[in-house]
Amino acid sequence: MKVALWGTRGSLPTPGLDTSGYGGNTSCVAVHGDDGTLLVLDAGTGIRGLGMTVGAVSRIDILLTHLHMDHIQGLGFFAPLYRPGLEVNIWGPVSTKLSLRTRLMRYLSPPLFPVRLSELPCALTLHEVPGEDMRIGEFHVEAALICHPGPTVGYRITDARGRVVTYLPDHEPALGAGPFPSMPCEWTSGGLLASQSDLLIHDSQYTAHEYRDRIGWGHSSFAHVIEFGNLTGTRHLVPFHHDPGHSDADLDRLMEEAIAEVPPKCRVTAGREGTVFQI
Amino acid sequence: MSSPKAIQMILARQLASCVATPILLVDVDGTLIFYNEPAEEILNQRFEETGEIPADEWHRYVTVADENREPLPPDERPMRAALLSRQPVSRRMWSKHAGGPWRQIQVTALPVIGEGDHLLGVMNIFWVVE
Predict the structure, then answer these.
(1) Got the DSSP string for A158-214?
(2) Which of B2, B14, B116 sits opposite A186 (nearest CB)?
(3) Is 70 exceeded by the pLDDT of residue B1?
(4) A147, B1: Cβ pair inside 8 Å?
């Protein structure tokens, strides 16, 4: 499978010269199966560019981790949604009281957006997660709730050859865990989901100093994500969901410092818009 | 490795680890999957040493009785009652571990119900009655 990063920024689109290296678009990742299956992970502003490249397909699946604005802001600008009859499936978490449709409609309806979900010409179906494991084309997809404010899931995607990509863009496994990591995988948020991943795309929004002031906000420090990668036996780690306040130069320096502080047991490639991983 | 844990139970364990109130977490099978340090005194066991304890085993560590110190049938124990009814159950009772004295305790068993109305386990909170 092929994994392409279309948006790596967290919280807020951050265009500008000093963020052009890692990119300013918010979370969006495309996973292409060898059989042509296309999974779109989150619908941050990066999804607009992805939509411009989607050729003739019969089906697209969009897997939303949660409904914070930076993960759905691009949804209405995803061109394939306006192709009459194209099968589009959106998977996302429910709240304890509201359906996925009701929650999405809060954004995709006036006055925040001019087009309603029901007015889209594609053949749209919404699916609520987590539930049973999903089979989408060649992919086996597992979803599980993880530690982040509001209903939030992570996804573990396994291709026909058994290669695994895990996507946890907003995740705070260190919350309340004392010294992190102090628990085995099964007692760590997202631990089993990410176990033995070939590629793990994971939240790395803060420095250790920033994290101390933002405990409970649902994100991880650079050191935490390396520790999490080591704990889960990940083979290739992609720190992701960069803070809007971190310039390219900051990210280069912060990654170097984190790797010096917590030696990773696997390859680490900081998430950069435009990067393509062949798994 | 023990069974996978739902995020709600992971967070419940984290909460239990940070409070001074004795708390026992059991899963839907009644397996004692975690107890915090304050609860170690009630069981006279240490979680670091026992790890998870199967349902048919951990009840041997502690004897419970009703307010008259009569044996309490399993289905009337707060944890079991909460699992069966999926509602919080609170009652005053007596407990003792092997070789220990009887102590009067107040137990509140709170079912942990996740998305899709899925029962995940029970959080048992203990107060020792002075």
Answers:
(1) E-TT--EEEEESS--TTTT-SSSS-S-GGGSTTHHHHTT-SEEEEE--B-HHHHHT-
(2) B2
(3) no
(4) no
pLDDT averaged over chain B? 92
Is B1 inside a domain boundary?
Answer: no
Closest in B3, B10, B17 to A189, CB measured: B10
pLDDT digits (tens, 9 = 90+) for B19-60: 899 999 999 999 999 999 999 988 999 998 999 999 989 888
Whether residue B5 and residue A185 make contact (CB cut-off 8 A), yes or no, is: no
Give yes or no for B5 touching A (CB within 8 A). Answer: yes
Q: How confident is the model at residue A94 (pLDDT cuts 50, 70, 90)?
A: confident
> What's the structural domain count of chain B?
1
Q: pTM of the predicted model, to two decimals?
A: 0.89
Give Cα A71 distance to the centre of its chain.
Answer: 8
Residue B53 located in a structural domain: yes
Domains and CATH numbers, chain A: 2-278 (3.60.15.10)
Nearest chain B residue to A132 by CA: give it: B116
The per-residue pLDDT for range A184-204, each reduced to its tens digit, is 999 999 999 999 999 999 999
In terms of CA atoms, which chain B residue is nearest residue A96? B115
Tell me the CATH number at B71.
3.30.450.20
